[in-house]
Amino acid sequence: MPNTVEAAGSAPYVIYFSSATNNTKRFVDRLEVDSDRIPLRPKDPFLYAKRPYVLIVPTYGGGNLKGAVPKQVIKFLNHEPNRKLCRGVIAGGNTNFGKAYCIAGDIIAAKLQVPFMYKFELLGTGDDVSIVRKGLEEFWQKI
Which InterPro entries has this protein been placed in (predicted)? Predict the structure, then answer.
């Protein structure tokens, strides 16, 4: 049976990917919003989005454009119903990546034609969490 997302009210909803370091997971946990995680391992059950969401994703690749979007996220978004429910993207990254800082967000937002809403470094600061939480609440009222 697929891992499904239950329908809920008009509260912000996030789908995210986090590597084994769990930086993105820690960031999302601090947001205190309804969320589901894209599986880390291929053998884990596939995640099927059941309602609109904002995607939060780390940037991979150490500064290279190739490989910046995690393969698990590509697999998730290659499922058309998942892709169609995405309403925006937030990306994490490392400023050491230079021009490629948070480039996964740019790539996904352009491909899906959704807003790139915010960038944060590594697991984000308290200010990042406050800004994103408030932004998600305001964004959710508009969609």
Answer: Flavoprotein-like_sf (IPR029039), RNR_Ib_NrdI_bac (IPR020852), RNR_NrdI (IPR004465)
- The span from the CA of 42 to the CA of 71, in Å, is 10
What is the C-alpha separation between 67 and 60, in angstroms, rounded? 6
Distances (CA, A) of 93 to 98, 99, 100, 114: 10, 11, 9, 19
Instruction: Look at the chain and count its residues.
Output: 143
Backbone angles phi, psi at 33, to 5 degrees: -120, 160
pTM of the model: 0.90
CA distance from start to end of the chain: 30
pLDDT digits (tens, 9 = 90+) for 69-115: 999 999 999 999 999 999 999 999 999 888 889 999 999 999 999 99
- pLDDT value at position 52? 96
What does 16-72 look like in DSSP terms, one character per residue? Answer: E---TT-HHHHHHHHHT-EEEE--SSTTSPPEE--S-EEEEEE--STT-STT-S-HH
What is the residue type of 62?
G
Which DSSP category does 101 fall into? T
Residue with tokens 């509260």: 11
